[in-house]
Specification:
GMP Synthetase, Chain A, domain 3; Spore Coat Polysaccharide Biosynthesis Protein SpsA, Chain A; 27 helices
Length: about 700
């Protein structure tokens, strides 16, 4: 242990008496690992872009403290325990925040005129020194654990980073310019409401007729979009029979992937979350899962403290900043601490397919540079909980298996979902991350990506979520979604001419249908439902204004739209995994009555609480998680009867990559401390996939 109180008048870097041995040999000579462990890790390093120490720690072959001690001996650097002796808060003035984040270093203490800087990557310290310039401050490196460095950065610079997280997106593309409790907005809302009430009293039939025509217009818009998207998806399903050419199988070193998992008041979900993510087959040395907590969230902190976390998972606490507590603010804050070149987002209750990361990095490797985001498909693992969960699962299947793929095939703007998103980090940072004040930050980011000319693709991989199976929580969740869609529309329609120029006419009209018409449809749905009274022989109140012939035509449009809705939903749940939902499709009109209530709650909050995040409570249906969520491959049962073969982890990844590149699937997972068992159907490794050996990195 270092003597933290020792002060030297002129500290200098230690000089090598002789050339240090390679890092792996140093670990073997010290008895920290065995020779076979070193060979295994070096073989794996040929295929993954990770230091040798990271691989050994992720594989459970060495403790991080032993690895750090070996690095200290190799580089002749002093160890620093930042947890026992944290930096003085006043020392943050010696280094800028951006430099600390870029090189993951933190100022520790002063010795004379020399600043001791804690790092976990000795090889990158020379680049950090170069940024200080020739006449810059004298610095010397000390070694510390990466988690302690991140915690120290957050402690020293947290207030500045929290403020930056809240204002990261330029004001022109953000809703933060709205005052959360603006008296002026309430005055305008009151005036509009008063005028509407006055007009309704003065000319009720004319007002009702105008609203009905508006509802009809938005119904035509949303139905047309649904027909086009459904047609595009069905055409691809039945007529594009030519299998896609295998993606380029040229060798590439696997990138590090950081996945952000924002948590808030999660008392039940943390242990289950770790269990689910442990099934991922991506090399753990390249997996950087970051649990993002609010600093004042004692509930989740206590839950995580009771949970044994794997070495590839870390925790970032977001300092409080004003009264804003939103998911996008937490994501912005944690983004600066991520180590991956690919940034993903999962929700607390998510259960991704085991090979999801492999599919993402393989597609990113083959995709054009303008493909900025890959969106996975979402499904529910508790659709049998009750009637509400079944209807929610039908709605999700319709959206994720029919509508959204069709929208993407039509080349329209893809409104992103809140989870199973993966971004190229440079592009995400170029767009300044998420709007911290928008409660549907995902849809807003999808629109901003499209405006900048980037493409979002859908990937054939599924994440299973927990369906909201209680009425009032469902209404609260849906009101947040509708409020966010309306806010996003208002923000981007500040300059409609510019928006149309950037997107083009048809994509511009798609935005109107997806964002504005969706909200209006739910809000005015009761007017459309009123047509059902005509089937009982009751004359509709607006018949005297529009005439009976036009009213019958409108009624036919309404009925045709309902038939289209049911047809698309029936097609969406016709697959083997969802066939049990088919009878419940015909109850969907009753299900959507709750969405009308949600729209009124959303409208009220948009005026009074535009930034309020009505959080959904997770962990209600944990016991309903089916086995298919853990192993979703339909052929898994068939493979179970085959004689397994055992592969080393490095060779296993090559075989897995062949399957992914060729469109195959494998639903097993690699325990972090074991070799993996694969069925005998794994193909032989092609020679062109062999990656030339490279020099090991410490």
């Amino acid at each position: 242990m270092s003597d933290l109180r020792l002060r030297l008048p002129e500290p200098k870097a230690a000089e090598y008496l002789e050339a240090p041995p390679p890092f792996g040999r140093l670990l073997v000579n010290a008895g920290i690992i065995k020779q076979d462990d070193l060979v295994h890790a070096l073989n794996l390093q040929q295929h993954v872009d990770a230091p040798l120490g990271e691989i050994l720690a992720a594989e459970g072959l060495a403790r991080r403290s032993d690895i750090l001690a070996a690095l200290s001996r190799q580089h002749q650097m002093q160890l620093a325990d930042l947890a026992a002796d944290p930096p003085d808060p006043r020392i943050k003035a010696y280094l800028p925040t951006a430099l600390c984040l870029k090189y993951q270093v933190v100022p520790w203490m002063m010795m004379g005129d020399v600043l001791l800087v804690a790092t976990n990557t000795p090889g990158a310290f020379a680049d950090f020194q170069a940024c200080l310039g020739v006449g810059g401050r004298k610095v010397l490196p000390v070694l510390a654990q990466a988690a302690d460095i991140r915690h120290a950065i957050s402690t020293l610079y947290g207030d500045e980073l929290a403020e930056r997280a809240a204002t990261r997106v330029p004001a022109a593309h953000s809703c933060r310019t709205w005052t959360a409790t603006s008296p002026l907005r309430r005055v305008w809302a009151s005036l509009i409401a008063g005028a509407a009430i006055g007009l309704t009293i003065a000319a009720p039939r004319m007002v009702l007729t105008g609203l009905l025509l508006l509802a009809l217009l938005t119904l035509v818009m949303t139905t047309t979009l649904k027909v086009l998207a459904f047609g595009a998806q069905m055409h691809a399903r039945f007529f594009d029979r030519t299998p896609p050419a295998p993606e380029a199988a040229a060798p590439f070193r696997l990138p590090r992937v950081s996945v952000l998992v924002p948590l808030l008041n999660e008392e039940e979900i943390a242990g289950k979350l770790i269990e689910r993510l442990s099934r991922l087959t991506y090399p753990k040395s390249l997996l950087d899962v970051v649990l993002v907590l609010e600093a004042q969230d004692t509930v989740t902190r206590k839950t995580i403290a009771r949970t044994q976390m794997p070495p590839w998972m870390s925790v970032i606490e977001v300092p409080q900043a004003s009264d804003l507590t939103t998911k996008p603010r937490a994501l912005n804050y944690a983004l600066d601490f991520c180590r991956g070149s690919v940034i993903g987002v999962w929700d607390a209750e998510d259960c991704p397919e085991p090979d999801q990361i492999e599919r993402i990095v393989t597609r990113f490797n083959a995709a054009p540079d303008n493909v900025a985001c890959l969106q996975g498909r979402l499904d529910y693992y508790n659709p049998r909980a009750n009637w509400l969960a079944r209807c929610f699962a039908i709605e999700y299947a319709t959206w994720w298996r029919m509508m959204l793929p069709g929208v993407a095939r039509l080349g329209l703007v893809v409104p992103l979902g809140g989870t199973t998103l993966f971004f190229r980090r440079p592009i995400l940072e170029k767009l300044c991350g998420w709007d911290a004040h928008n409660v549907t930050e995902d849809a807003d980011l999808g629109l901003r990506l499209a405006r900048e000319g980037y493409v979002t693709e859908l990937v054939e991989t599924t994440t299973f979520e927990e369906a909201n199976a209680r009425a009032w929580p469902w209404i609260k969740q849906r009101s947040r979604w509708l409020k966010g869609y309306l806010i996003t529309w208002v923000v981007h329609m500040r300059a409609p001419g510019k928006l149309m120029k950037e997107l083009g006419f048809w994509r511009f009209m798609g935005v109107q249908a997806l964002f504005l018409a969706t909200f209006v449809q739910f809000a005015l749905a009761p007017l459309l439902w009123s047509f059902w009274i005509t089937l009982l022989g009751v004359t509709h109140p607006v018949t005297s204004v529009l005439g009976s012939d036009l009213m019958w035509h409108i009624a036919v449009v309404f009925l045709v739209a309902e038939v289209i809705n049911l047809t698309v939903s029936l097609a969406a749940v016709s697959g083997r995994a969802h066939r049990h939902l088919l009878p419940f499709v015909f109850t969907m009109p009753f299900y959507f009555t709750m969405a009308a209530v949600s729209s009124y709650k959303a409208l009220k909050e948009m005026v009074a609480q535009p930034f309020y995040w009505d959080k959904t409570q997770h962990g209600i249906s944990l016991g309903d998680e089916p086995a298919r969520a853990a192993a979703p491959d339909a052929d898994a049962a068939h493979h179970a009867d085959l004689q397994p073969i055992r592969l080393p982890l490095a060779q296993l990844w090559d075989s897995t990559r062949c399957l992914v590149a060729g469109g195959g699937r494998w639903s097993g997972f690699i325990p972090p401390d074991q070799d993996a068992v694969l069925p005998t159907v794994v193909p032989a490794l092609p020679e062109d996939l062999v990656v030339p050996p490279q020099e090991p990195r410490a």
